[in-house]
Design goal:
Alpha-Beta Plaits; 4-stranded antiparallel sheet; about 100 residues; two-stranded antiparallel ribbon
């Protein structure tokens, strides 16, 4: 099973990572906490102490156009907040 993991880089996520040493990732909905922990440790070479996950439902969206109303749905996703051990950090901008 292939697990997708993508860092969330927002102002709120950056503030939490600086203050509490927690990093936020968007992960596959089928991934569990053990898989997320092992993947983050192998990708970034850090020690993970805890993983918290949140499931988000997809939202309904619609917009008005000349040809009528177009309606659709935004995909559901899972977000993981990973707490690292004391003294560990992840630099997302190192390989730009």
């Amino acid at each position: 099973m292939d697990i997708m993991i993508k860092p969330v880089v927002t102002e709120k996520a950056n503030a939490v990572s600086e203050k509490l040493n927690r990093y936020t990732f968007k992960v596959s909905p089928s991934a569990n906490k053990f898989q997320i922990k092992s993947l983050v440790e192998s990708l970034y070479g850090v020690k993970v102490t805890s993983v918290n996950t949140m499931n988000y439902d997809g939202k309904r969206k619609q917009r008005y156009t000349k040809s009528g109303i177009i309606s659709g749905k935004v995909a559901a996703f899972k977000k993981a907040v990973v707490t690292l051990a004391e003294g560990e950090t992840i630099n997302f901008y190192s390989n730009i």
